[in-house]
Known about the structure:
By secondary structure, this protein is an alpha+beta fold. The protein is built from six helices and 20 strands. The strands form four sheets. Strands 3-4-6-5-7-11-9-10-12 form a nine-stranded mixed sheet, with helices on both faces. Strands 8, 13, 15, 18 and 20 form a five-stranded antiparallel sheet that branches. The protein has a four-stranded antiparallel sheet with strand order 17-16-14-19, with no helix packed on it. The protein folds into two domains: 2-235, 3-Layer(aba) Sandwich (Aminopeptidase), CATH 3.40.630.10; 239-309, CATH 2.40.50.100. The structure holds zinc ion (ZN).
Amino acid sequence: MIFCGETILPGQRKQVQLPVPDAKPLECICLCGKNQGQTLVVTAGVHGCEYVGVQTLRILAQELDPATMTGNVILLPLTNPYGFYAGAKRVIPEDGVNLNGAFPGEKNGSLGQRMAFALEDTLYSAADFLADLHSGDCNESLHPLVFFPTTGKTNVNAVALEAAKVLSVDYRVRSTARNGLYSWAVQRGVPALLIERGGQGRWSQPEVDACTADVLALMGHLGILPGGEENRKQQEIVETDYVESDADGFWYPLVAKNQVVCMGEVLGRLESLTGKLIQEVRAKFDGVVLYHTIALGVHEGEALIAYGHT
Ligand SMILES: [Zn+2]
């Protein structure tokens, strides 16, 4: 295989630098299977405090054996090293850009826009399938889930949906996003998923083990590893309400992740410093809580809670 101008021979593992205009390159690990097949691209760390995927790919980069593979894997464990080393919530600290909303990028834009340009330019053309690993952010409590696309071409959506079914997450959530690393890939014809596991700026070995199993399951599904994969027991979330803060305030969630809620139930309250009620969040339908903010202080427009129904 050839990636970013580097040739990787069958059975070989190689560290390859992904060039970013006017910035440090990003470090990729390419594994070229002994036999030809599909290429899976897996990215993590788009958001710097979402650690489960980062740790998973760091270990998989060492442990996967290309000699046993039919097809290729390209791993990018640290897509946003700036945010990772700074411990920055959501954004690239240098320019305040949320990389997962910066697609399509700009070759001559800010650092985040140039990174988006470089990622699209190099990864999409190499990928038969792309998976982007996230967690709840450092201020979020989240139940494991996968977002699958509904805004791409029919066949692209269908390939992504079938792959989502082999993942060990309880919820598979319909997504209409278009401007993220995975969702823009879908717009460009690459089947892709966004997998979320963990949160609150933490990671654990059981979460990394589960995330590792999901990457291996995707490889099996794509025929890169032998065996194929059975579909897992999941619930499909067909509608999600993403509630944002009406103002700066103090946030008091009254429910937990994975909690079943009823239409009309109060999910949380936003209050002022002096105790005035700013916003009372009530469920618009019966559903289940996918994630919510745990921070006491929130900015206007920030995510408070997301719940959905099957
Ligand atoms: Zn994220």
